[in-house]
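New to this. Explain these tokens.
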Amino acid sequence: MKKNSLSSFLKGSLVGLLSLCVILTSITSCKEDDSFEVTPVNFVVNADKTEITVTESINYTDDSKNVAEREWKFQGGDIATSSNVSEEVIYSDTGRFETTLSVTFNDGSKDDRLFFVDIRPFVQTDFSASATTLVFGGEVQFTNLTQHMPAVNSFPDGESFDEEEETWVWEFEGGVPATSTEKNPVVRYPDVGTYKVKLTANRNYPKNSDTEEKVAYIDVVDVAVISPIAVHTCDFGSTLRMTYPETLKAPSAIAADAFTIKADGAELAISSLTLDPDNSSSLVFNLDMPVVDGQSVTVSYSAAGDMKAESGSIFAPLEDFLVENRVVSIFMGNMDFEIGVVGDFPPDWGTWNPTQSINNNEKYKITDADAVTGNNSITWTYDGSGDQWIFDNKTPTSIIGGGMYRVTFWAKSTLDGATLDLRVIESGWASTNDPADFTLTTEWQQYSFDFVAEEAGDNNRKIWWQTPSSTEVYDFFVDDLRMYYLECE
């Protein structure tokens, strides 16, 4: 059977799937010898379509015989109910809706039918390109972003399956190929110039079309394409620096829209994008929320921002380019006191009291009674008899001379208002790091101070703290000591 004949049979003989179901329900009186009788069909309901595009209409007809009363109900239609033999119903909203017909026959018998109609949205055509600025001879991968395009010909209402049209029709000014019917084509641009791209999307069932044309969308140039040579966080995670091998043009006001920065997969908002005032080969991204210790940071560039160097070189696209996250603690060893036995002096540490010229290991112990993170913190009791307690981390790391550093720590005391003078010292290394005393409360709070390292090399991190003389006895708690390098070179 030809396709046209099949389509005519479905529309003419069966009057759609709905009529077919009604006919089948009228076959009755099966006998033991497998012969049967056919009861005349009294209840025949027709709909010319059961799937349309929003704002279109469906024609309903009740061809039933010997009808005394009927009631249509059209969920989602411009007509809610009707008793007429036929109705044309318009649907202004998308979705799946119920249509019911209840019939009372002259002999008092009743029957009803329930079926569904699907109202589809308008096609919305859109697309993107892997690059909108490229060197001549390069290729572009186009991505079809069109919405509301179901599978082709799920059950066409047309006279013939031969009415199928190509679902996608691309037109590429200056491209090779010049046209395409692929969903996501790859196009080469052999010549320098600025070109438009056009996509027409045709939905076959229910029929609907839409066209998107982007003028001056592809810019083909005859210069080099450059990629970053270094990308890292800076300013304690509040900025991100991206350095290129050439001097850059100042970014436009909307250039930041072409970049995406993520931390652990979550996008970070970019508040501004500027050239580094100290290095015209570097961009500075200011972030609304800073990157924090341990996060995995990536940057992507869509090439839609038309970023270029002074020479005319263009930026290459980036996809999840890994960023060096400099918000990483350079303290090593047991800085959160998770190593060791509760009640004992913590491993990786030593002590010394300069005034009394003795060790004071017995003053310190790991506790699991309270902690900021993990299970443990460090605690000791002040009894008014000691001062200048040095708590010495035994795992050194490299330090850059003249570099700016930040120390952070969490602390609290059982005495509200207790004073703690905490600093990081090493003879000839960081003697200027004498911050103001910290006033503790009975709740955990994070404190910090910045200093400049005076000497490079591998040095112990002597954590020095002192409390003023007091006749009161109270406990100190400290947790999660961290030190960060703050430079942005």
